[in-house]
Predict the 3D structure of the following.
Amino acid sequence: MAVVQGLSDPAGPSGGGDCGTRLKHSDGPWLRAAGGAEELVAHLAPVRHELVLAHQGLPAGAGRLTALAELAAVRESWLRRIQSAQGECGSLAAGLRAVARIHGATNEAVRSSFAAVNPCEADER
Amino acid sequence: MTPTLTWAQLRDLRCAELEEAADGWGRSSNRADAARDRIEQQLLTGLRDTQEGEAAQAAVARLRQLGRNFQYVYTECGLLRTTLNSLAHEMRTQQRVLKEALDDAAALRFTVHANGTVTYPAGGEGLIDGAPLRGGTASSSGSPGLVPPSGLTAPNPNAAKAQDVADRVTGAVRAAAEIDWRYAGILRRLKAEEGLKVPASTWKDAAGDAAEVRDAAGAYLKDAIPHGASPAERRDWWAGLTQEQREEYLAVYPDQIGNLDGIPALVRDAANRDNLQLLIGKLEGRDDERSVTQLAGLREIDRQLGAGTHPPMYLLGIGDEGNGRAIVSFGNPDTAKNVAAYVPGLNTSLDRDFAEGDIKRAWDTAKGAQKYDHSSAAMVWLGYDAPQFPDGLHSADVMGDERAETGGRAFGSFMGGLVATNSHEDPHVTAIGHSYGSRTVGAATQQDGGIAGVEDIVLVGSPGVGVDRAEDLGVSREHVYVGAAENDLVTKAPSKLQGNMAAVAGPVGFVAGGLLDRGGDDLWFGKDPASEAFGARRFYTDRGPSLATGGFDAHSQYFDVGPERDRASADNIAMVVAGRGGNIKTEDQR
């Protein structure tokens, strides 16, 4: 599209302007990806509680097993790994959103500077 | 190893708590799987398909790494789930042994002590005075009771029973301690690696973890996979499992579920994406030629899966046995109305050439067919060891039927699976054989009932298919389509008669053998499929370059879609696949 339609462009590049020229950039996919990454942060949030809850009966029920001593360390290692992944989702979301913001601003500037030219009308003639 | 458990602790062990913990790991595994799915199906697709530039590339790379990370979490948490369930299962077995021993002791009014010794009461009769013999204590260490019976007296009958009880109690506790020790080791190795990345070395460890859990869980999930059943029976077996059971099979046996005919395509694909990573991890770092070659093929398949395709790619089979296995579909064969499977031939193995060339043929065929009917899927099926050229043209593998017969049986089973899991009542199924692959398709048709569900057969670059008439392939002759480029020498390979006479009598024998084949239409594996006598529909193909200008290239261009080549052959194949065989551009039979 010649000019990005706005931050909430739902159709991506194929739903853009009518002038026939397209940039390979639009905000929609970036914002959707950012939103998706944020949802993943929320999606992973219950993991710690779920795992702790699932193991809470073990000390009383099977606490004598050597295997359970290992399991505690195993659980901690995975909670750390999942927490790192969760952090990465949050960091990615911020990064994706920043790209959309920067491009949105750039495109707005481009639109202003080309407003007088109005290539669409020129094409139609 | 010194048992650290007492029998009372084994008795009181609550295995349900272990299973509860296992469920927790199952939930974590599922969350990771859902996260990976979200990244691949939504986040990556949205950016990869619409955005270009460095920012997009960087974001896609980071998302892909995150997706890998979740795949690793999914795999390992799934293994943890099965490990704990299996631990519970094995402990329950020992609890049952213990309980039976304790019940017996109670019935006999024996006392089982905390240390596992068993005290028994007086019983029996003394030989001299007839008085009951004194009681005692049995211990499973084999040492006699505290008050051993005199050699001159009959033993107290309770002594042997007490000994049996003591042995069973101690045996159960020792076995449980051994199980505990073994699973502690497995769990120790299932710790997460720190960080976010999942290098090949991590997958290598994961492959080792899966193998170890598989060994340990043998008793828990044992032999339940119905390998000997028909594809339809396997489909029903899978449908009858609970969601939890399916998840465990996928976590522990992805290699078996991913390659089992009758399992739905989406499930096979999910299992094989795991298999792919595990195989890459397994082969990484090996320096033998076979491993290096296969690894290059696997990496290229992995790259294509990550890149995203239209129609989407499904990995229906993957393996490193023999020359390697790979079944790659473009379009979901369970939901498509038209489904085609292409069997490659001579010299095909799981390597980079296969991943770049044969897979592209399937992709081009799928795209071509979808132009005529959107509900079409096409795949390449490397489910057998095709003969290899380095063995020499005259090797038994290349010139013989055995590879085709073995491959034909496997292909028949695979096609049976496709038909069993396809959602359409009457799917349109096409078998495509190229080169020696056409001989393999021919062999598949000769099994009982032919190839399940196949309506159309396409043979290209064929040196013969093992039968002399199109109608002997199990479909009517109008549904057998043959592409034979004029300059493709394989479609003009001399017959066995001619070849054998040449071997015996040189050029004279070759000519004499040719004279005996009066129609001039016999090839190595039977009648030339392009011949009038064979009776199939021959479709138009470009002549291809001559031997002088292009060597054997004319043998490899049937699927080419241009722009530099005439795409008529590929278009004809696509029309047949889409169920439009009536529209092909024909060519006179030979």
